[in-house]
Amino acid sequence: MNIGIVGHEAKKFTPITKAKARDIIYSLLSPGDIIVSGHCHLGGIDIWAEEIANELKLETLIFPPKTLQWDGGYKQRNIQIAENCNEIHNIVVAKYPDSYTGLRFDYCYHCHTNEHIKSGGCWTAKLVEKMGKKAYWHVI
Hints:
Layout: E1 2-7, H1 15-28, E2 34-37, H2 45-55, E3 59-62, H3 70-84, E4 87-92, H4 120-130, E5 134-139
Parallel strand pairs: 1-2, 1-4, 2-3, 4-5
Helix pairs in contact: 1-2, 3-4
């Protein structure tokens, strides 16, 4: 099965939430699965999914953005992930770590919730749902 794995960049994780995220990735995978992800240049879920796939000797379909902007880059990459997965898992954190210095939002405007912070993975997971496929959120 083609398993989409997306979520937050590395800076949004603490060592504890990173370990939990990696445990979630391991728990999602079975022999023969193909990992579909986006090779985020900021690290985090995409890169950990690739590392774990390599460790488990699983095939990958990786779609890095062609540019580091929404149009012509992230949007098209996210569409490729959605089109190429059978289901998607979006791994996100509930809150920013105290050390996080990037742009902050009070809620996830993709999901219209404050149960987790905003992630581009949410946009991709919502698109997967619109395509009639299963999307799962894992909030740490």
